[in-house]
Amino acid sequence: KGLGLIPGVVGRFDSSSGIRVPHIGWNALQIENDSEILQDIDGRHVYFVHSYRVTP
Question: Of 22 and 32, which is predicted with more confidence?
Answer without folding.
Answer: 22
